[in-house]
Amino acid sequence: MEPHPTTRPMPRPRVASLRWRRRLGAWLTAACLSAPSVGGCGRDDAGEAKAEARIDAPRYRVDLFPDDQALGGDHPLVTIVFFSDYACPPCKSMWALMRNLVEDYGPDLRVVWRTTSIPGFAQGERAADAALAAAAQGKFWEMHERLFASFGQFDRPTLRAHAEAIGLDVPKFLEDLDSGVGAGTRLRHKRQATTLGVRAVPILFVNGLPMVGANLDEAAWHALIDAEIERARTRLAAGVRRDEIYEDILVHAKRGPIPLGPEARRLAEKAKQAEPSAPAAEVAAEGARYDVGPGPMPLRGPADAPVVIVEFIDFACPFCRRAHREAIGKILADHPSDVALAIRHFPLEIHPTAKGSAKAAVAFARQGKFWAFHDRILAYEGTVGRDRFVAWARAEGLDVDRFLRDFDDPEVAAIVERDIALGRAAGVPSTPAFFVNGTFVRGYTPGALEGVVAEELKIARAEMAKGVPRGEVARLVRSRGTHVEIPGKPPSPSP
Question: Largest CB tally within 10 Å, which of 65, 85, 296, 450?
Answer without folding.
Answer: 85
